[in-house]
Write a structure and sequence with these properties.
Layout: H1 2-8, H2 11-31, H3 42-57, H4 64-77, H5 79-82, H6 90-106, H7 109-114, E1 120-122, E2 132-138, H8 140-148, H9 154-159, H10 161-166, E3 170-173, E4 185-191
């Protein structure tokens, strides 16, 4: 993150924003809706808020596209982690689906009563049997950024789903996102050799 800021501005400004961001990030986490400490998708929100913090710290003086570039480079810095999954293989597809099923099974009716603002996932509209497909119909990240008045970041963050999936040798086919006013974020994921 700091490298991007140094390239766009200078070292002093980058240091100042990063320093302010740390305090803001802690506050963002503390004030976010509770979606459960053991929530398998909590890291999604925590990761996104890392990039919301410098935007707020800059009082929106850093353009949203620069924040997106910070996130994109961060993803590439851990591409080795994503590349552990190869979506061109059966094993890779199962690993990908396992993560979303883990959350789907975790978010029981009881958990929904406890954490009513957490992610809501379904499989409606699955194009064919066994497809790596799901929809997110409620996104606490979108809701929180809207509450914070920084929801202009969300469409740019959602675009980076393509990057994460490409690092897993996959391609994301998507019709809509909540961030762009849709009713859901759909994920149809295929291997990039399919």
């Amino acid at each position: 993150m700091k490298k991007v800021l140094i390239e766009k501005y200078d070292k002093a400004y980058a240091s100042e924003i990063i320093k302010k961001s740390k305090k803001i990030y802690r506050k963002l986490i503390e004030e976010a809706d509770d979606i459960g400490n053991d929530n398998p998708m909590a890291y999604n929100e925590m990761f996104a808020l890392v990039f919301v913090a410098p935007y707020i710290a800059s009082e929106k003086n850093i353009p949203p596209e620069t924040i997106q570039e910070m996130m994109r480079r961060s993803l590439y810095s851990v591409k080795w982690f994503f590349s552990l999954v190869n979506l061109n293989t059966e094993r890779g597809k199962k690993a990908n689906k396992k993560n979303i099923l883990k959350y789907y099974k975790w978010y029981t009716e009881e958990k929904e009563n406890l954490y009513p603002t957490s992610f809501k996932v379904d499989f409606e509209g699955e194009p064919y049997e066994g497809a790596c497909y799901y929809r997110i119909t409620r996104c606490p990240i979108c809701a929180y950024t809207k509450k914070l008045g920084v929801d202009e970041l969300m469409p740019l963050f959602c675009e980076l789903d393509d990057v994460m999936i490409s690092l897993q040798h996959g391609v994301l086919h998507r019709k809509e996102t909540i961030a762009k006013g849709g009713d859901y974020c759909d994920f149809l994921i295929l291997g990039d050799k399919e």
